[in-house]
Write a structure and sequence with these properties.
The complex is a heterotrimer of chains A (417), B (560) and C (242). Chain B has 560 residues and is α/β, with parallel strands linked by helices. Chain B has 18 helices and 26 strands. Helix content of chain B is 32%, strand content 22%. The longest helix of chain B has 16 residues. The two termini of chain C are 33 Å apart. Classes of the chains: A alpha/beta (417), B alpha/beta (560), C mainly beta (242).
Chain lengths: 417, 560, 242
């Protein structure tokens, strides 16, 4: 099968070729996704193998009996499953949160403050003569991003790498930085101040900028400001280096203000380098279903948004849920200790194709099919472009969509009593 | 199940029924003849002294896809208004920007049963359809945007109408779209260079074409394809004082074409394109001049784009305009440059009665609604650009009552007295005209034969309101009219009662219409061009588009 | 100051999840029966105040004592207009949000969103506070607009964002991003803090300890900077002489 859509990172490359269990054209990360791996063999309750039906019955009971269940994950599944997950959370009056809350959600908060002047990856490929990677290292995290969309992509107006200036702003010299035309090294925690300095320079307030800001010499800041002002169509692509360091959403908000300023005289866009293949869907789907992207509480029967209270880590740290459904994610491996501690104390339901740290403490484990390999569905690339994931092999595993539809059905039965 | 609507007072403009007491019969989702049902098996609805009309048809609203969803994401302050706590129905929230369930519920409660998403970014078509599929209660469709698509530019530049036709047929099928929308043709491409186009004859950067050529080529192609709906145009220079002249020039482009069934050009949310003057300091209404031109040309229809005082969110494919608005108001701004297809922007705003510009916009919308022949003007707010669709009854009542307008004029900036002719307009449209402007006319403009009327064979989409047209004095009893039209006593969708006494009683899922015009064109001839152009896309051609099987209830309308 | 006439609430169960109790001093004026039946959210369940708290009513004055650990109780004193609340322990999120008048004294610590969008009255915290004190909720244009918040311990990040009036005084240290997009009012920090005054248009931030000035402020005199220049701001950042 050709034009297979990869379900690893947010680049969602759609040019894979699949034949007899082998995938071609994708990067090492994408190819690894298609390689055979250990799977959860069967649904389990308390470590005992059971049927899908029994596991689903138990999962529904846990959710219905909880005062406030947390339903978390969603970034590595399809929109069809996410939609049912949002409806399920609403039905059981729980909390919906998704992986963005520990990676790119600060970007969403910046959108709330200032908006998101952006464009698709195709716009960057065709038009961007300057690309700034800020706290992002696509050469490692999104291996084909550079060649397909940004660094060396061949587009309509920008025909090759020579016509495009690549700038990297980061705290260390990454692989991407080594291939950049300009590398600006910022002292950890000073991205916000550096952006403020750029705004001051572009606004003509040079006197407000000291000789060095965040470890960057004023001279280099002026150089970067000039590159930005003189770009015909520039793009700032930011990564976890910004969203998960000091300032988070405030830093991105500041960068958005910089982009607003630049658009008065030329064209600039800004966009996050999203991680999981459908973390965008995990925010877009709840936005149209219930109005918010993440950290949504339904305890009052209607959605409320409060990242400082309803994001999964905040919920767990405050011991503010009494059951959890974890789908397509491994919080036990990635969350802070205090959050994991509470997960150990409450009944956990896990839905995932693969065993992970979370499996070890889950009361109910429900294995699922892998989207893009064993199941069809919709996913949004990092720039919100929808792509249909293909099924390339048959499987005995149920899809997340089917599992959630069955849980939803059971929950409705139980609620009717 | 069959339904017998008894003793209602029916207004059905398409079938020339002007407030007649009569019975209606419904079976299998259609309006049927009395003889087709067994009366004893019918559920009887007593509609004595109540207004019985077809379900409302909203031909231009932004209800699904990346723009409204970015709007929701940007504006949690909008989503805090709770309309419904989850029970057997979904939770529904939103002030003006609504969640998908809330959109369906609010239309249904108001007696509307059809709504069209007016700007679908082609590459985002699947997203638009996912959201349309999340809207319960109503039928829907989406209009993909063509006015800044490089492949359109290419065929216009080559003056190759056959290829343009083939491309349009291909694109509408791929996006499962309904017709041809164009937004600021050429202007959004100019925005990619930080510019805009200012007249019909400006050159589009990078191409040897003008907005005039794009518009006329799209009209010609659409007419030769015989699509159910005409070109649906958001004009150049939107939101710019003095733009009414561009609008008039654009409208006149239609006079070269003819179609016996419908208009050849629908100009949308014309209020935003009806400004005289040279700046916002001396802006005035150009509505009277526009009305004169629209009334004199048979080929053109418009919709109002009426602002409603209060909160709104501007979201259009007109990316350069959105940036201008952001600069003007200082409000947050999202932008979406989209591959080689166009762009869009989103900016929150609030219409304040004592702000001279906002009051001017409000008055212009009403002038258009009053001065233009009721067979040519459809009621819209360009949701959510002009405000909520839930205030259509306010606009309806205003167009029917000079007294109400006088009362409302007291509350707005006196600037409208000198800058518009609203106060002097004594025209009061009739209830029948308003039913036409919200039902049979939009259905006709869209080419939906089974919608907007109550003749035998029509879809059984019916709204019943607590208003007796034989008895009501619409000039004086405007409060009663507004209140009655705001919530339906019954809304029937596809033969099922979904609303009773203003309350939801059943959740149903409507259809998604799309148009298939492929049989009329030589797709083979255009595919090499499309394949070649996909080098400028960031996805593969084979992964572009939406299959029918991915949509909840698709309904294909085959042309040719 | 606390006479005998008041209402005393004391948690009587271990809360499995947090409780949302929009209690204002107004409650003290109600009958015991009404107080016991006052509705609070306990997870998805709407329960009676009396189910979760011991209630002792000693009079009709608008005075409430919250006796015990209220760190898992949210929205205490939200929208209160007058009267007094004394929290003998710590308090949960959103305490004093949208408050218009009256006084809240917290003897322990306060969680995030203390006095958010507050418009009058006074909050005194003897311990520390979390993040977002006196801020605007996401999507809103204005944070604290009037009133006074005194924190005797330390405060977290994002204090007084979009503040347009009133006073926040922190006796200890504050975290990062103090007074971002501030338009009016005053923030006084006796200890140290991180970045201050980003996109500040007006108001004053006075700091006794160390702080980080952003490259968008112009030094007017020794210990006084004005900015943020990027928004043509006239906000003042002042170093308090020790």
């Amino acid at each position: 099968m050709v034009n297979v859509v990869c379900t690893f990172c947010g680049s969602v490359c759609d040019d894979g070729e699949y034949e007899n269990g082998k995938i071609k054209k994708l990067c090492r990360l994408g190819s690894a996704k298609f390689a055979e791996k250990e799977r959860i063999k069967s649904p389990m309750v308390d470590g005992k193998e059971v049927s899908y039906e029994e596991a689903i019955q138990k999962a529904a009971e846990i959710l219905v009996n909880a005062k406030k269940p947390l339903l978390y994950g969603w970034a590595s599944t399809a929109n069809e499953a996410i939609r049912l997950g949002v409806i399920l959370t609403e039905k059981v009056r729980g909390i919906y949160d998704q992986c963005a809350s520990v990676c790119h959600a600060p970007g969403t908060l910046a959108v709330i403050e200032e908006g998101l002047p952006g464009g698709t990856l195709g716009s960057i490929k065709n038009r961007a003569d300057v690309v700034v990677f800020w706290g992002a290292n696509p050469m490692e995290a999104h291996p084909r991003h550079g060649i397909r969309y940004s660094i060396s992509a061949k587009g309509l107006l920008i025909k090759d790498r020579k016509n495009r200036k690549i700038v990297v702003v980061d705290v260390r010299k990454t692989r991407t930085a080594k291939n950049a035309d300009l590398f600006v090294q910022v002292k950890p925690g000073y991205d916000y101040a550096v952006i403020t300095a750029l705004r001051s320079i572009i606004n003509g307030n040079l006197d407000a900028v000291p000789e060095e800001v965040g470890g960057v010499k004023k001279e280099q800041l002026v150089q970067l400001a000039d590159i930005m002002k003189n770009a015909k169509y520039g793009a700032i692509l930011y990564g976890l280096g910004v969203t998960q360091s000091r300032g988070r959403d405030r830093t991105i908000e500041n960068a958005v203000k910089l982009v607003q300023l630049l658009n008065r005289t030329t064209r600039w866009i800004i966009w996050p380098m999203r991680g999981h293949y459908n973390v965008v869907g995990a925010g877009e789907v709840p936005a149209w279903e219930v109005g918010y992207q993440y950290a949504i509480d339904f305890s009052r029967g209607y959605p409320r948004f409060s990242p400082n209270e309803f994001a999964a880590v905040e919920v767990l740290k405050r011991k503010d849920c009494d059951a959890a459904l974890i789908i397509a994610s491994d919080p036990v491996a990635h969350f802070p200790k205090a959050a994991v501690k509470h997960l150990k104390e409450i009944p956990v339901i896990q839905i995932d194709p693969f065993p992970n740290m979370t499996t070890l403490l889950a009361k109910v484990v429900i294995p699922s099919a892998i989207y893009g390999i064993e199941a069809e569905g919709t996913a949004y690339r990092m720039d919100c472009i929808p792509l249909r994931l293909k099924k390339v092999v048959e499987t005995k595993y149920w899809s997340d969509e089917k599992i959630l539809a069955e849980i939803l059905k059971k929950v409705e039965e139980l609620k009717k009593g | 199940m069959a339904i017998h609507i008894k003793n209602g007072i029916v207004i059905d403009p398409k079938n020339k029924i002007k407030a007649e007491k009569m019975d209606l019969f419904i079976k299998d989702g259609k309006i049927v003849d009395e003889k087709a049902v067994k009366k004893e098996e019918c559920q009887v609805i007593d509609a004595t002294n109540k207004l019985v009309v077809a379900g409302g048809v909203d031909m231009h609203a932004h209800i699904a896809g990346s723009k409204i969803n970015t709007g929701r994401t940007m504006r949690p302050e909008e989503m805090r208004v709770v309309r419904r706590v989850a029970d057997t129905f979904r939770a529904a929230v939103g002030r003006v920007l609504l969640t998908a369930p809330a959109i369906g519920y609010e239309y249904a409660k108001m007696g509307y049963t059809v709504s069209f998403e007016a700007a679908q970014p082609p590459i985002g078509a699947l997203h638009t359809h996912e959201e349309l599929d999340a809207i319960p209660m109503i039928d829907k469709a989406a209009l993909p945007v063509f006015g800044n698509w490089h492949l359109v530019f290419k065929f216009v530049e080559e003056k190759n109408i056959e290829k343009l036709k083939a491309f349009i047929a291909w694109a509408i099928e791929r996006t499962k779209g309904f017709g041809v929308k164009a937004v600021n043709p050429g202007g959004v491409e100019a925005w990619m260079y930080g510019k805009n186009v200012r007249s019909l004859d400006d050159q589009v950067p990078g191409f040897n074409i003008t907005p005039r050529e794009i518009i006329t080529s799209l009209i010609q192609a659409t007419e030769e394809l015989k699509l159910p709906h005409s070109v649906h145009l958001h004009c150049n220079n939107l939101g710019v004082p003095g733009n009414y002249q561009t609008t008039i020039e654009t409208i006149k482009l239609a006079s070269k074409f003819s179609n016996s069934k419908r208009q050849v050009l629908h100009v949308t949310h014309v209020q935003f394109n009806s400004y005289a003057g040279s700046s916002w300091r001396d802006a005035a209404s150009g509505a009277a001049e526009i009305a004169k031109v629209v009334n004199s040309i048979d080929n053109v229809t418009i919709d109002m784009g009426q602002p409603i005082f209060g909160h709104a969110t501007a979201m259009t494919g007109d990316a350069p305009f959105q940036f201008t608005l952001h600069r003007l108001t200082g409000a947050k701004w999202s932008n979406k440059d989209s591959e080689v297809e166009g762009g869009a922007g989103i900016v929150p705003l609030v219409y304040l009665p004592n702000n001279p510009v906002h009051a001017l916009q409000w008055a212009i919308g009403l002038e258009l609604g009053l001065l233009i022949d009721s067979n040519k003007v459809v009621l819209t707010t360009d949701y959510p650009n002009g405000g909520p669709f839930t205030e259509y009854p306010y606009v309806m009542a205003m167009l029917m009552s000079r007294k109400m307008r006088e009362k409302e004029l007291q509350k707005v900036s006196p600037y409208v007295q000198k800058a518009t002719g609203l106060a002097a307009i004594d025209k009061e449209k009739t209830l029948e005209e308003l039913i036409h402007m919200t039902r049979s006319l939009p259905a006709k403009i869209l080419g939906l034969e089974n919608k907007g009327h109550l003749g035998i064979g029509a879809d059984a989409d019916v709204a019943i309101y607590d208003l007796n047209p034989l008895d009501v004095d619409t000039s004086n009893e405007f409060e009663k009219v507004y209140k009655a039209l705001k919530t339906a006593v019954y809304t029937i969708k596809g033969g099922e009662i979904i609303v009773k006494n203003g309350e939801l009683v059943k959740e149903v899922w409507g259809r998604t219409y799309w148009v298939d015009a492929r049989s009329k064109v030589d797709l083979e001839a255009v595919m090499p061009d499309i394949e070649n152009y996909f080098q400028y896309y960031s996805i593969e051609l084979q992964n572009y588009g939406v299959e029918e099987s991915w949509i909840r209830m698709p309904e294909r309308i085959v042309v040719g | 100051m606390w006479g005998e006439i008041m209402l005393i609430l004391k948690p009587k169960v271990n809360f499995v999840v947090t409780v949302e109790a929009e209690i204002t001093p107004e409650l003290a004026t109600k009958s015991l029966d009404e107080i016991l039946n006052f509705k609070v959210y306990y997870g998805k369940n709407l329960v009676k105040l009396g189910d979760l708290f011991e209630v002792k009513k000693e009079g009709d004055d608008k005075k409430i004592i919250l006796d015990g650990d209220f760190s898992r109780v949210k929205w205490i004193g939200c929208r209160m207009e007058d009267g007094e609340i004394l929290v003998k322990g710590s308090v949960g999120t959103n305490c004093g949000a949208y408050m218009k008048g009256g006084k809240i004294i917290i003897e322990g610590n306060a969680d995030d969103w203390l006095g958010a969008e507050m418009n009058g009255g006074e909050i005194v915290v003897k311990g520390n506070t979390g993040n977002l004190v006196g801020c605007a909720y996401y999507g809103d244009a204005t944070g604290m607009s009037n009133g006074k918040i005194i924190i005797e311990g330390n405060a977290g990040n994002y204090i007084g964002e979009k503040m347009s009036g009133g006073i926040i005084e922190i006796k200890g240290n504050a975290g990062d991003f103090v007074g971002t997009e501030m338009r009016g009012g005053q923030i006084i920090i006796h200890g140290s803090c991180g970045f201050v005054g980003g996109d500040m248009r007006g108001g004053e931030i006075a700091i006794k300890g160390s702080f980080e000035l952003l490259p968008a402020f112009i030094k007017k005199e020794e210990g006084l900077w004005v900015g943020d220049v990027n928004v043509k701001g006239e906000g003042k950042i002042r170093a308090i002489k020790s």
